[in-house]
Amino acid sequence: MKIKKAASYATLQPYYQVDFSAAFCLFEIRVNDVLVFTLNLEGQTSTSIPINSGILQSGKQQITIKVLPIAGQKVLHPNAQFSYNIKIFDAANNLNFKEQLPGEYAVEKVDPAKKKSFLTHTATFNAEVPYTVMAYQTATDLGSVGGLKDKLLGAYQQLADLIVKGDSEQIKKLIANRESLAAVTMYLSKEESDDRLTRMLSNLKSGYKLEPIPVNAILKISGNGKLATLVRPDGQPALIFKNEKDNEELALEFTFYIPAGKTDLEII
What we know:
seven-stranded antiparallel sheet; three-stranded antiparallel sheet; 19% helix; globular
């Protein structure tokens, strides 16, 4: 992975967020076809989520919202809805609000008579970031990889086994590219990056047990065919650890790719 930082990186840290309201749907938010957030919503919510992980360089960006039926349903709920705008915060200054980009967007309203299984909305916006990342853009097109889901299940199980063992050194090696990408796009210091892994392993050592990866996990391709992940039918990540005693769960999201010139899946 190649990373180029601008000279102003220390003081220029624009942090882009999607500020949205949604109801009665399972939805996906993709930025430049990178799946940045998904949620199964049997009620309604309004919140914001960061999207810098999908922004690899300055310039025009594409955002796509896909609204799907609530998990277990085949057609959209008549009251399914999703509306949003894009806001910029300053990560170099305590995430202070800077501005809202022009545009208030919404997925079209559901027409119950049409019994649709999904609705989408796509828009573009300009982003200025102090970095350029060459991460997965030249990776293998996963559409040409036979038995991809089985290979992905194997990669997930390998990772899950290491997490259960608490093999922090091997885990660090496997997620090095992912952590480098997160550090750049989310403006994390080395201490903050190290703390991410430390906290994850610390949590898992306190009574959390792996929930079996479901055989009906859904393969999601993103990143213009270069990225793959597994999600549960309700949109949750494939890797979930539960603490029965405290009735808590920890869902871990991982995305895989095959770097150019290689044949094995790696975490990005």
